Amino acid sequence: MSEQTEQATTRNRRDEYAEMTRRGVVAAARKLFADHGYERTTVAMIAREARVSPATVYAQCGGKEGLLGTLMDMWTTSPTVGRIIGNAERGRTGRDKLRILAEGYVAHAAEAGDIMRIVERAAASSPQAQEFMRIADGRHTEALEIITQGIADIGELADGLSVTDAARIIFFHFRNPQLVLASETFGWGIDRAQRWLLERVESAILEP
Fold this sequence. Notes:
Elements: H1 3-36, H2 43-50, H3 54-61, H4 63-76, H5 79-89, H6 94-122, H7 127-153, H8 163-174, H9 176-185, H10 189-205
């Protein structure tokens, strides 16, 4: 093996180890933020959970704020989000598109609902978390406007309703706190909550 090949192999192994370490730190932060809250979780706690030094938490992930931003990105840019938008776009009718979207909300909540709650709760006391929520909400509404534009393009958006307002109506009804309120706080369960919210959205944004 040549010296250059050995150096490349060493770099690859180092990069793989760094990525494994980063993932371990992110997983530790996700667990601790959910269990103890963002404010009460310290870098030292994350380091112990991930079995690394506090310096590694800062170097690999940017400390608590960097980790919160990473979790927000995992929530808002996951492959699931792209699949939901693509599937909804391919729906033949407005009702098809909204049904696919409603099912997607439930799937996404199952995948990243804990992260949504972490960022939402952190925003009550952290300016940085508030900024992350602003970014997350912006990405959310932009994705919804793609779907509501599709409904408008096939002539099924309610008369006088803009694409932006239609997206906001969906956002209001299906954002995670509303889904949790209906499914958990009301005790309806996820299926009934999904049906009820979907009916409200259909009546509000589709042509009669």
